[in-house]
Fold this sequence. Notes:
Strand order of the largest sheet: 7-6-9-4-1-12-11
Radius of gyration: 20 Å
Helix content: 10-25%
Strand content: 25-35%
Order of helices and strands: EEHEEEEEEEEEEEHEEEEEEEHEH
Number of strands: 21
Structural class: alpha+beta
Largest sheet: 7 strands, antiparallel
Shape: elongated
Amino acid sequence: MNKNYFEIIRAGINTTFQDQGRKNLYHIGIPFSGAMDNRNYLLANKLVRNKLDHPVIEFAYQGPSLKYCGDNINIAITGDINFMIKRNNNNIDGKCYQTFNIQNGDEIDIISTNKSVYGYLAIGGEIDLKYQWSSCSINTKANIGANNGKKLEINQKINISKIDKDLNNNKLDYINTKIENIRIIKGTNFNFFSEEGKKIFFEKEFFVSKLSDRMGMRLEGPKIENIVDTNIKSEGLIKGVIQVPADGNPIIMLSDHGTIGGYPKIGVVISADYDKLVQLTPGSKIKFKEVELSDAETLFKLYELETQNLISRI
């Protein structure tokens, strides 16, 4: 029996194991999945001295409450999160982007995100998980990944197969910034839409709907007129592509998206803006701004460079 484990006291909302996802499986209908906010995922692992591709616990809005049993272990939480550590009837206020040494009997209570959606809990060591197609990332729509493809549940135990004995503290001064202007490149069906529809897409505000999850983000706002055909022969989809169904309300495909779809595609969110996009809560405003492909490539290189600089500071 494993002597080091976390027991789930409260499961939280959409709590899953995620890593960097599974690659090159679109041909059999399997998307990448993986952590929604890749930068916060990487920083969490780096803080606890894990390899950068280690699995972490991802949660949305309200995180889990966990009780620990075992030898001392480091944890770190990234994102914009309210949490506390309960030790011997005392509450220790948690701070994101720094490690905490967790002792036998401690509880981690991840209360909520702050005007954001996703947060990450990294554990300093190796979690005992099963991999599927070289990844433990959970896709609950397809029941793929660790934990039989299911969300984490109350009373479940998370077994730690190996603890990193280096319990030195790490810290990073980092603030998550918000974004309203989402940069896109034109989609393959951009000319399906009227000139007025294109103008609306780039000049008007849209709002994130409550009907958003790891699979897609539905937007509400002025309708985008299609003058060719509101349905097309199903084609391949990628993360960040923006489809417009017959009702004229855009849908942005996210990490657990279906790999084919039959709605015309007006644009694609650039990779450099994806992490901030997924952190937009229901009711948040979005405005789209067009950039050229060459600019999108440059912006992604700058985003990756900034991420690596943050990692190197830990």
